[in-house]
Amino acid sequence: MRLIELNEYNDSYMQLAKPVYDSKRRVLLGIGTKIHPKYLAKLKQLGIKYLFIEDITSKGISLEDMMEMPTWLDILAIVENAFKAVAANQLIPLLDIRKSVKKLIEEVIKRNAVMLIPTTAVESSLTPFAHAVNVTIIALQTGKKLGYNNSQLNDLGIGCMLHDIGKATTIKQEDHPENGFNILRAYREISLMSAHIAYQHHETLDGQGFPRQLSGDQVLEFAQICSIANDFDNFVSAGLLPHVALEKIMSLSEKKYEYHIVLAFSKGIISYPPGTNVQLKIGSGIVTRIDSNPHRPIVRIHRLNKEIDLGEQPTLLIESILKEEDLKNIGQ
After folding, report:
1. Region 224-244 average pLDDT
2. What is the per-residue pLDDT for 188?
3. Degrees (nearest 5) of the Cα angle 32, 36, 40?
């Protein structure tokens, strides 16, 4: 199994490895389906940009570091309900939010690093809620690497899952952090720390953020974690490859977020997810799995029909990421 861009799909040798869902989380196309070109056009109209596929190249590859899509979609639906409740001036379903955060903590604890389901693997109407779930996953993974206890992870998770809740009451980007803070602090069941995550997740160490232009120690560590997670998911959703997005995050160290937080974040993110086509000096290959180092994967070299652990080959580097068209041109 591997993840591809929608425009890379070829029905002559690919079939779906995971279902495609609509905005109501109903199955549009099931596992094993070969997608007709007219349905590809429809998926594009819906804003779906990624597919999980199975082909001979990805045979034997599993995405163990990614949570199951039905679970991810269930949590996405709870976030969506929270936004709808706030927009309708109703109560946030806090019990469901707490249960969702608990589930995500469990998912993160059992993995050394995380591979995200792209927010653009679902209809565009669901993207804001998918983003909230992904931000929470990344933040919890970072918190785990920082040694946070369960209580801290819980506060971090709730604040991150609802970091954009202010957008339910305003279309002004600069207003949503304060709106979100005021919404969350009205609930005595939500810690003030969680509420401040919503308030501060656009603040930066150098004082160039908003809404209050906080700087240095004024920006809480929890909020910085949310900020990194928010930025990373936005970068990837905009089309940056994970390793490029990671490099961009690291370039902002001590400008936007503290170095020790960036370091913890980098230890929990997979640079080259399984299924990624790569070019090495010794030939083209495909990432088959991640072992101990999330940035040095195991790669199957096509011409050698052999797997090489880059963690044990420090001088062997990934030179570039290959698209489907690149593989055809070089004949693998």
Report:
1. 95
2. 95
3. 100
Mean pLDDT of the chain: 94
What range defines the domain where residue 222 resides? Answer: 69-266
Residues 252 and 295 in one domain: no
331 pLDDT higher than 60? no
> Residue 81: exposed, middle, or buried by beta-carbon count in 10 A (0-12, 13-18, 19+)?
middle
Helical H segments across the chain, by residue range:
37-45, 69-87, 94-109, 127-145, 150-161, 176-185, 192-200, 221-237, 242-251, 259-266, 324-330
Bridge-based pairing of strands 27-29 and 298-301 is unpaired
Domain at 161, CATH number = 1.10.3210.10
DSSP state of 158: H
pLDDT band at 65 (very low <50, low <70, confident <90, very high): confident
Q: Which of 215, 233, 266 is the last residue of a domain?
A: 266
Compute the C-alpha angle 198/237/93, nearest 5°: 40
Do 216 and 294 fall within a single domain? no
129 and 165 part of one domain: yes
What is d(CA 37, CA 7) in angstroms, rounded to the nearest whole number? 11
Exposure on the CB side of residue 270, measured as CA atoms within 13 A: 25
What's the pLDDT tens digit per position in 30-64?
Answer: 999 999 999 999 999 999 999 999 999 898 898 88
89 with 229, same domain: the answer is yes
Angle at 228 between CA 124 and CA 139, to 5 degrees: 80
Does any domain span residue 246? Answer: yes
